[in-house]
Amino acid sequence: MKRVLINLLKNALEASSINNIVTLNCRLEYNDVVFSVHNQSFMPRDVQLQVFQRSFSTKGSNRGLGTYSIKLLTERYLKGSVGFNTSEIDGTTFWIKLRKS
C-alpha cells in the first residue's frame, strides 16, 4: 500500500509545474476505501491509452514502472481497482479503490 501511494504522489508531482497543487485524498465509498491523487495537468489521449503499460513513460528512458506497478500491486496483491480521470479543465486524478476490511 505504501509503495502504491508513493508512486501515485511521485507521478503527480513529476507531472506538475512549479506552483501547481497536488492533493492526496482518502474517502469511504460504501464498503470501499478510495485513495486519490490529483494534479492540475492534463494527459493527452495518446498518453491515456498507454499509461498503465509496462515501460511506458513520458519522462525518458529507464522509466515507466510507476503506473504499471500501481496497477499490478493494487489489482493483484491488494485485490482492488485502479483508474484515472483527466480533463483540460479539471486536471488529472488517479484513484485506487480497496475493499474496506
Give an overview of the whole structure:
The chain is of the alpha+beta class. It is 30% helix and 31% strand. The protein contains 3 helices and 4 strands. Strands 1-2-4-3 form a 4-stranded antiparallel β-sheet. Strand 3 and strand 4 form a beta hairpin. Helix 1 runs antiparallel to helix 3. The longest helix has 14 residues. It is globular, with a radius of gyration of 13 Å. It starts with a helix and ends with a strand. The mean pLDDT is 88.
Features:
4-stranded antiparallel β-sheet; 3 helices
List SSEs in N-to-C order: HEEHHEE
**Could you tell me the number of beta strands?**
4
Mean pLDDT: 88
Share of helical residues: 25-40%
Largest sheet: 4 strands, antiparallel
Low-confidence stretches: none
Please count the helical segments.
3
Spatial gap, N to C terminus: 14 Å
Strand order of the largest sheet: 1-2-4-3
What proportion strand? 25-35%
Write the layout of secondary structure elements.
Blueprint: H1 2-15, E1 23-29, E2 32-39, H2 45-48, H3 66-77, E3 81-87, E4 91-99
Antiparallel strand pairs: 1-2, 2-4, 3-4
Question: What's this, in brief?
Answer:
With 101 residues, this protein is of the alpha+beta class. Helices cover 30% and strands 31% of the residues. Helix 1 packs antiparallel against helix 3 (66-77).
